[in-house]
Model the fold of this input.
Amino acid sequence: MTTLTRLDAAREALRSACGDVADATPADAVDGVPAALVARPASTAETAEVLRAAAAHQLTVVPRGRGTKLTWGRPPESADLVLDTSRMSQVLDHAAGDLIVDTQAGALLSDVQTTVGSAGQRLALDEPVPGSSVGGMLATNASGPGRVAVGTARDLLIGVTVVRADGVVAKAGGRVVKNVAGYDLGKLVIGSFGTLVVVTEAVFRLHPEPTARGFVTVPFGTAEEASRLVQTVMNAQLVPAAVEVDWRADGAGTFGVLLEGTPAGVEGRTAAAVRLLGTGAEAAGQPPHGWGVPPWDDDAPDGPRPTALKLTCALSGLGPVLGSLRRAATGAGVPVALRGSGGAGVQYATLPGSAPVDAVATVVTQARAVCTEHGGSLVVLDGSPETKAGVDTWGPVPAIDLMRRVKEQFDPERRLAPGRFVGGI
Amino acid sequence: MSGTHGTEKTAGPVLGTSTDTVPPEATSATGTPGDKADAIAAVTRVARAALPANGLITDPTELRTYECDGLAHYRVTPALVVLPETTEQVAAVVRACAEHGVPFVARGSGTGLSGGALPRADGILVVTSRMRAIREVRAADQRAVVEPGVINLDVTRAATPEGYYYAPDPSSQQICSVGGNLAENSGGAHCLKYGFTSNHVLGTDLVTPQGDVVQLGGLAPDAPGYDLLGTVVGSEGTLGIATTAIVRLVRLPEEVRTLLVGFRSTDDAGAATSAIISAGIVPAAIEMMDALAIEAAEAAVHCNYPDGAGAVLVIELDGAAVEVEHEYEQVERLCREHGSFEQRLAIDAAERALIWKGRKSAFAAVGRISPDYIVQDGVIPRTALPEVLRAIADLSSSSGVRVANVFHAGDGNLHPLVLFDGEKEGAGEAAEEVSGAILDLCISHGGSITGEHGVGTDKAAYMPRMFTDEDLDTMQLVRCAFDPDNISNPGKVFPTPRLCGEVPGKRKKPHPLVEAGLADAF
Amino acid sequence: MAQPTRVQSDEPQSDPRKAGAQAHGPVPIGSPTARPAFDDEHPPSAELISDCVHCGFCLPTCPTYTLWGEEMDSPRGRIDLMKAGLQGAPMTDSMVQHFDACLGCMACVTACPSGVQYDKLIEATRVQVERHHTRSPGDRAMRAAIFALFPYKRRLRALRGPLRAYQASGLPKVVRRSGLLDRLAPKLAAMEGLAPVLEKREKLPERVPAVGQRRAVVGMLTGCVQGEFFPGVNAATARVLAAEGCDVVIPRRQGCCGALSVHNGRQEEAERFARSTIDSFEAAGVDTVVVNAAGCGSSMKEYAEVLADDPAYAERARAFVAKVRDVSEYLAELGSVAPRHPLEVTIAYHDACHLGHAQGIRQQPRALLREIPGLQLKEIPEAEICCGSAGIWNVLNPEPARELGDRKARNIASTGATLLVTANPGCLMQVSSSLERQGTRMGLAHTIEVLDASIRGLPLSTLGPQ
Done:
């Protein structure tokens, strides 16, 4: 039997499962790995049919939302089928009085925000990569400045509908914020890079939109200064919504605080923050340059993909982590720009796409050691194929055996985004 | 629901013999009694070698004091109780359990209300009450590192001098343990604003059901890999035993205002709650108690709630002083507009404490107005509150069973207390029926069968009403990954255990295309 | 972790299935022929036991649970054991050990939201224990010595002063041979160092007249330990009451109130002491009986239960109970008239368990102390947890008592106060040795001594080291 007839059989099975199945184009490649087919189911039921067909034909499947972060993580070992959720783009139900929203996974995060915004509410998740779908954001656990106050997806997702690799549909959680019935599969799915299940529907808790916002910024020049500013603000009574550190490649830094609340409250707290931060502190109604945008987006889009790093540490380790990354990069002769939530201990950094792989590897190894020493980790989120091939992208993962066992249970045939995740999962 | 909670009561000197219900699963054994006894003896030998001499309880009379947790209706005497002091000791006992196929159940302070720590007659009860060191208060990291037996409130006590506290505050916070909170994903009055235990536990050392020690999460957020921690928190001890918890510390607010508001009816109080939430205010807590619950609390702790109130709200606002001031003005006005007849702002810490004492003692206090009662825990969307409260009132009047209502109004978490007198024939059954009907109400309104007490032994049979077989099967894939032999708190959460040998889908085998040499063709 | 050695069987229950069954039926645990733990004469009440909903709110306030972290040494665990006893379980050594380990501090009674009357339960249980349990020879000797010493003022007098403990030739043999004196000596020594400057023992007259206009006539209990070790407290009590307008009647013939016996299940002895105390005060013809020792006051308020089965005394006991007041309770009721002089001092007020938990008297002493100009009152962290004195508990359980005492002393020291004030002689003795051990120098005084100093305008130095 030829390859072609295998593909034909799979295509046929998929078409009877789903109204929108097409042959993949080069644009559908997943991080350089060419795909064969693209299915765009319109519902959870159709997704289940597609996954059953894929199981029957032993297809590897890479779930895709809007494809904005498809190169994050490692490239999959294969991508027979791209399961595209973009037709599941409905915001299903906004129960304003209950402060929840129920949405299909393929919906644009911005559409969700528009819907809930009409009632003066928001889903308190930032959108660091514009154009993200809800599902894609969950799969990559993307976060932005707002995480200091309300956390990340794991703190907001209250219900999830998923389809397993074998096509079984399952729900966990529900439509109420407070709920401890059964295992919290939502948390397991967040940040799993599509390797466990396909999320088709999600329910989130919402927050009221604040009536006023104010920013306070102050320049800094060293890692120690940045760390001290973070400690000062976090230990004060400002109740910040975001505490950001932006340390550009040229060594100039901006420390920024976002205050949200009532107009009178924000005014008072802004004034207090300006006093607290001392010389050079300025209040502004608008965010400073680059606020909430990952530092790699500052680079010109042409040329090889810049290397995107995510560094985490205990708050007290911020100074050493920032300092070590800067020193490692300087030592390796590559510029580094950093930006992230100083208040949460989560930093994003970027090295130019043109940086030699071994220089990147050196920087990663050195900075990772310091992150680990301070209770955190360093992950290479994205980079050129050469870079990803030449560095340990995920780094050490303490409970990897247990994670493999989880994967083994959910996807025993390793067909969902194989190889994209930690430890080759 | 398979049983009643609360007090047992019989007339004669022989207590609690006829009404006790034990899930058959808890006592049935698959092996022969002799095999089981041998296995337990083997684990006992290991435990004796690994633990200090006073760390084992084998005396039958002493073992009886461990036969139930805070849900006293279900009682099973464990075969052995161990009181380990270190992670290594826990791991040694669990390894022995794994080796000999002996089930184990973890228990903290034994205050759970769903029978989550109900022992197994053929199993070991691992009690963490001697693992109670607060290892570190790391104010600069906004974290504390604690052992599982540490009492919830003690974390706050340790962090307060540094200007921080531990936010999750179950009503039993003065005695419940952090380990138990972690297992149950405990909530509390203040989770409306600050979230639940799962939002505040950032790392743990977990002794897996194989007896291995793995680190999940840590001081920093977003550890790479699956968020196993997020699944372990709230898994009710079915995925292993947490022996360390890294918890978030929250900055003590600049300003706290606790307001006690009296209303004529729960309808008015519910409407005020909705109005507050709709105004875009997220108070730290909004708690409601109805007239019966108020009566009980008054009897127990003399909390001096407003006279003649059909309902009270306890509303707490916290945060930056200037924001709290603004919110307070709105809340005060909204309550007035919705019919409050008395508002009392706590003027000092003592008054604040008394207001909360009334609320937090309410469950046990109901013992003062009724010989027996069932503590229910269900969740509804907040907007369904008036409708559901009316339905509960209807249930109560049609059945003649009194129901006191205490609940976290802000997030729709109801704690109806179904009152009965166990000495009256049929009263227990009638109460159970009402209690079950309340859960059905929650489910039919899109809610949950438990908001914070957990499924445990008590509600496992109810899970199929809320979840499909596929949902439960999928959840149990996680169980199979962690505990394929089903020895970690078996019989809890899930009505029927999944056979972990049954791998979903087709058996794992080489890809046919690989076999055919065409693996890379697509 | 100091803990009594547990009686342990070598192997767990042989048949787990049977074990499960045992827990649910009325079948007695252990040998089916063993005698049940309790007889029918006032066993712990099944009705009261059923009030316990097992919520666990008692655990953090229970000193033994705090020490050892195990259920059977907690109030709800002991209630489980009582229940087992009612269901026919025999009174095993281990069961008795857990009942004995209870300090009787009654912190659990305060903490219990369900209103479980654990005080009644444990006292009923203790009477049963005394009736049915055979203690080890050493334990028997120690208890015999205690009860041959404490309730008797003359014998106690032989212990006064730091060296007397070793020269106590006048004491009964049972006391000298028991080892009791060795246990007491360090505490007595510590107390001598920290307690208020011992005034010359004043012989109190039988009647102390009111200063100014008479407002009331009250009787006063002098107590055993109070009278012998803290005579200044009795003198101060009489002076303050007189200053506040009371004629104070101090019956000469009064003996021990029986507190130790009541709290240790020695029913007959307790009844005897109770009857004699009632007789003394009835003869004195007073409307109120004022007590300055928390332990004495709490047991005197229990006389109605102690003598419930005595037809000749049941009614009289009820009438007597209605008259009993702690001195701070009484002074607060009466309202102060005597002017207070300033005392510039920071004090830590320690709630004696038998005042706070057993009698519910917490606000009155604080209110009285706050009336003194210049006085700063500090609250002690973990105030609800017993200092480990608990009547004779610290003598019977020296090691855990020391742990509790040290914990209390650390908490007291953390307040930064220079004077510790409380209302029970046992607490003062217990805490003094722990403070001494940790090197904290601070004065110790009874509430009434502070009031006395203020009313008389005495300097702080009279209240011990500052």
Observations:
- Residues 3-86+411-424 of chain A form a domain with the Uridine Diphospho-n-acetylenolpyruvylglucosamine Reductase; domain 2 fold (CATH 3.30.43.10).
- The two ends of chain A are 30 Å apart (CA to CA).
- The mean pLDDT of chain A is 96.
- The CA atoms of residues 45 and 99 of chain A lie 27 Å apart.
